[in-house]
Amino acid sequence: MPHRQFDALANDGFREDPYPVLAAMREHHPVYALSPGLIESWHIFRYDDVRHVLLSPDLFSSDRSLQGSGDIADANLGFLFNNMISATGDKHRRLRMIGNRVFMAKAIESFRPAVQKVVDERMAFALGVDTFDLVEDFAAEITVAMICAVLGLPRSDMPMIRKWTAVLGENSGAVTWLPEIDPATVETGRRAGIEMTDYFRKFLSERRSKGHEGDLLTAFETVEVEGQRLTEDEVLSMAMLLLLAGNETTTNLITNFVRLLDAFPEQAHLLRRGDLPVSGAVEETLRMRNSIRNVDRFALQDVTMHGQTIPKGALVVVWLTAANCDPAVFDDPDSFRPDRQPNRHLAFGQGAHMCLGSALARMETQIAADAILSRTARIDLPEPPHLGRNANFDNVTRQIARFSPCR
Ligand code: HEM
User: Fold this and answer.
1) Is 388 in the pocket of ligand 1 (CB under 6 A)?
2) HSE on the CB side for 349, CA within 13 Å?
3) What is the reported pLDDT for 59?
């Protein structure tokens, strides 16, 4: 009875190892209505169905304002979604064009030396101590430094940024699963929203007074969409999304890459020898241990899939993690195969809202992966990981590691 275990937040087993349950759901319940939570949600598991939902904006909208406002939106960090991730149609296209200028692969290349520098710094640190926390002392140091560089924020604000990031990891989407609203979850979400909004309001006003022009945030402030500028809330929301999306997801990706090396020593050996491609190992990490396990949409009309009718207005949760292990698309999906070709995983989503930061995330992880493989003889993870509370993410909050240098 796999669906009985499909109650992600309330079930520690699912959070730690969702794969058997997701596999059973994919096979036996490809479209599944779950209603122990505050909001009834419809879950989609098969690769083709996930793509169909993400590629049909006329049937399934990304407009998160459809979930309403108030406590649920506060707990779910609604302030993060008042921007391009929720925008539709022409408004989305205009905002995306601005984002693309900074985040397209060619533009991101200019950050390569800076990424290399911070990776070198962290490798020197990791090789110079006995054990360290792979999450905070290594991966997050790289990703926060880079998103600060992209947005022009001081790196000294990192502790605050990581504090807000932890709220993202705990809250986002979590309410879907709760049987009743938890006032503490609402309160932490609301407080993080206020703190981050104040931080960026001050940052943008100082920037304006210094006459900064032509950077990403200024471009969002001045763009006109349907004859109107974005509201201040929309600009602030975009900055907050970039800050949090830009560090949490890639921190998990780098961490999960190391965890997979540990779990698959034979492939790690071949990667070290140069017999398997490192870029392929990064893609396999995205496929098998993607930070973002699912994304949400709202049904714009009644939609029938596999004989089940998803009602108009329903919250639809597509499971990227389940799609990425669908045996109909990936041979031997539970094996880590860096030479897998093709590897059309959906880790970055699909369609109009496909991840804006994918080139940056790939570059950071690839540089970190190259450095780890070429400068360590072995890696040990002497303690089990600490996992985040929110089953929507493959989120490790602490992982003690030891990097042994090459002789
Ligand atoms: C491993 C790293 C990452 C993963 C797995 C990831 C995953 C995703 C996914 C699945 C979406 C689609 C959401 C949807 O369809 O509702 C998305 C969108 C987005 N991501 Fe990422 N992301 C990563 C890194 C980044 C980075 C580094 C940034 C920016 C600095 C970023 C910024 C964004 C933005 C702005 C969107 C919204 C795009 C739009 O609506 O057009 N992401 N990401």
Assistant:
1) no
2) 20
3) 98
Q: What is the distance in A from the centroid of ligand 1 to the CA of 214?
A: 23
Cα→Cα distances 289→248, 260, 279, 334, 347, Å? 14, 9, 15, 11, 9
Paired strand residues for 303: 310
pLDDT band at 1, cuts 50/70/90?
very low
What is the whole-number distance in angstroms between the Cα of residue 169 and the centre of ligand 1?
14
| Dihedral sign computed on CA atoms, order 239, 243, 245, 250 | positive
8 A C-beta contact, residue 333 and residue 326: yes
CA 35: distance to chain centroid?
25
Pairing status of strand 31-34 against strand 376-380: unpaired
Task: Give the position, in ligand 1's atom list, of the atom nearest the Cα of 92.
Answer: 41
Which single residue is written with the structure tokens 């937040």? 9
139 lines ligand 1 (CB under 6 A): no
Give the integer Cα–Cα distance in Å for 15 and 391: 5
Contact 365, 253 (CB under 8 A): yes
- pLDDT digit string, tens, across residues 182-235: 788 888 888 888 898 999 999 988 888 887 766 778 878 888 877 888 888 888
Residue 36: predicted pLDDT = 66
pLDDT at 29 (0 to 100): 94
- What domain range is 39 assigned to? 2-405
Write out pLDDT tens, residues 349-398: 999 999 999 999 999 999 999 999 999 999 999 999 999 888 888 989 99
Instruction: Give me the CATH number covering residue 158.
Output: 1.10.630.10
pLDDT of the residue at 375: 97
Domain count for the chain, please give it. 1
More confident residue, 107 or 211: 107
The predicted model scores a pTM of 0.94
C-beta of 355 in contact with ligand 1 (< 6 A): yes
